[in-house]
Amino acid sequence: MNNLKAIVLKAEKRNEHDYLLVCLTEELGKIYVLAPRGAIKNNPLKSYCQVLCNGLINVRKCKYSDNLYYLNQAEILNNYKLIKQNELKLASAGYLTNTIADLVDITEKDNFSFYLLTGFLNALNLLKTDNEINFLHCYILIKVIEHHGIACNPKYCGNCGDKLFNKNIYLSADKGLFLCDKCKTSNSKLIQNDFSTIWSNLANINLAQNKWFDIPKNFIIDLEYYLKILIGKEQNGATYLKLIRGY
């Protein structure tokens, strides 16, 4: 079994003995379902989710599906309780006010991975350190683009939904969204609709202010370490790290 790490996006108690976790694994841009082995018979990804930065958990890949991962029942229950505790904390702090992404069929990875990653980026805004978070926005978007290639070219404006084909595309640094001309904000940067140059266009937004930041090869596994770097000097840093780690 391959051991992976995952950030849990949704926790759901389906019945007395069945806990469903939807997560983003270290394989950027992909969605997986965590459940006790054999618990999921049909595709469960027809729901809404809220992104929770509750930290990393270990998962093991199922034998029978590329899209399912499983934990044993005790691990599922433990993680479910931790996630729900964090959900209450985040909700009471006013962070969970909107659903982030409409999950669609697992076969449509290239369509929804971008929007789910956008939700994950929005969750990172909890850090309240604009320069560093903008840089993380850029880096994760770049990794999604690298993973999916041209298929991850944003097709629709993240605000109004208009098609972006052969139009100017802007990255909204404050929201982590791709926007059209009419929806661009004062914090938006123009990104050419050319994926041969998108790395330099994205990186130039913040790399000039963050040359010290060594980009990790495996971002998700190193997320906690880099969050410590980013918020180590913040007054609420210790509290936030406890929140994302689940204790």
Strand content: 15-25%
Question: How confident is the prediction overall: mean pLDDT?
Answer: 43
| Number of helical segments with 4 or more residues | 6
Number of strands: 10
Give a topology summary.
Elements: E1 3-15, E2 18-25, E3 31-34, E4 48-49, E5 56-61, E6 68-70, H1 73-92, E7 101-102, H2 109-124, H3 130-148, E8 169-172, E9 177-179, E10 188-191, H4 198-206, H5 223-231, H6 237-245
Parallel strand pairs: 3-6
Antiparallel strand pairs: 1-2, 1-5, 2-3, 4-7, 5-6, 8-9, 8-10
Helix pairs in contact: 2-3, 3-4, 5-6
Describe this structure in words.
This protein is α+β, with helices and mostly antiparallel strands and 247 residues long. It folds into two domains: 76 residues, Nucleic acid-binding proteins (OB fold (Dihydrolipoamide Acetyltransferase, E2P), Beta Barrel), CATH 2.40.50; 164 residues, Recombination protein O, C-terminal domain (de novo design (two linked rop proteins), Up-down Bundle), CATH 1.20.1440.120. It contains six helices and ten strands, in the order E-E-E-E-E-E-H-E-H-H-E-E-E-H-H-H. A five-stranded mixed barrel has the order 1-2-3-6-5. Strands 9-8-10 form a three-stranded antiparallel sheet, covered by helices on one side. Helix 5 runs antiparallel to helix 6. It is globular. The N terminus and C terminus are likely disordered.
